[in-house]
Structure formats: C-alpha cells, structure tokens
Amino acid sequence: MGSPVAANGGRGEYMRIPEEMEAAKFPPVAKAGASECPRVLRCRAIRWWAQVAVLAIVLAGAAAAAVVFLGPLVIKKVIAPILYWVSATFSRSAIALICFGAIALFPSVLLPSSPFMWIAGMTFGYGYGFLIITSAMGIGMSLPYFIGCIFHCRIHRWLEKWPKKAAFVDLLVKEIGSINLEQLLCSGFLHFHT
After folding, report:
1. 24 is a domain residue
2. Which positions, given as ranges, span the membrane (predicted)?
C-alpha cells in the first residue's frame, strides 16, 4: 500500500469530487417563492401594510369616539356618584388618611391605587392632593424594596431549592440585562411575581 500522498497525485488524503457527480446526487430544489415575480411579492407586501394602516385608523377612530361620547357618560353615571358618596360619608381628614394608606399600601399587594390618586386630587385640589399623592407614592415604592430586603436570604434559599421555578428569574435577569439578581430580589418584584 502506498501513502495517501502518492494515491491522489500528492494532494493529501482527500480528493475533490467532480461537480458533475455532485449535481447528479443532489438535484436542484425549486424555492416556494421562486415562481412568483418580485413585483407580485412587493404588491402583496404593500397591500398587507395598507390593510394594517386602515385597521389602525379605524381602531383609533373608534377609541376617539368612545372617549368623546362615552367618557362624559361614565364620569356622570359612575365616577361622580362615587365622589359624592365619599365626600358625604367621610370627613376630609379621613379621606386624606384613606387615600394616603391606599396609595402607599396597594402597590405592595398588586392592587391599583390610581382611583385613590384621583379622589385625592379631586377632593384636595392641586396643592394638597399633590402632596398626599407624592408622599404616599414614595412610601408605596419603597415598601416592596424593604420587604424584598427582609426576605433576601429566604428568597435565595427558595431559588436554590427549586431551580426549575427559578428559570423565570434567570429569564428576567437576561432580558433586563442591566440589573443584577440582588437588585431584582430586593426590589420586591420577585417576591410577588414568582
């Protein structure tokens, strides 16, 4: 037996397969869109985007009509009676405490606090309403952070104990990118969403 170099003319162990043999083994496959002309494809794309634009315009018009025609009706039939009931039932100091407590505590238990912001603004005006809302929002944003910091070690143990359930945490950290796991845990976000 000779060496591989001598077997195929000094080019090494591998030989080049002629193109005719490759073409015979693998016949060319026609692409699905090759039969259509690029002009037809371009027309289809333009037609699709035109339909999307028309749909967006129709939906925007329907939303504007709903705001213009249904907005005053909802305010008159739903929101105004609630405001009258709150102002007739509670004193101004009780309304301030209820709004402050709701705005501060509701974000921690994932409840919306915006109706109470609106009541505070409508009852106390721009000045005092702004002070109540701003101070309560400061507490409402800090409270989940402090809850997360208190349970920091317990959350880490939980993540080590159930790694499959911790996949959500890994995905969140990878998607956000600029935030690390400790900041995410201390923010209280994971305490309520996992």
Report:
1. no
2. 48-70, 82-106, 126-151
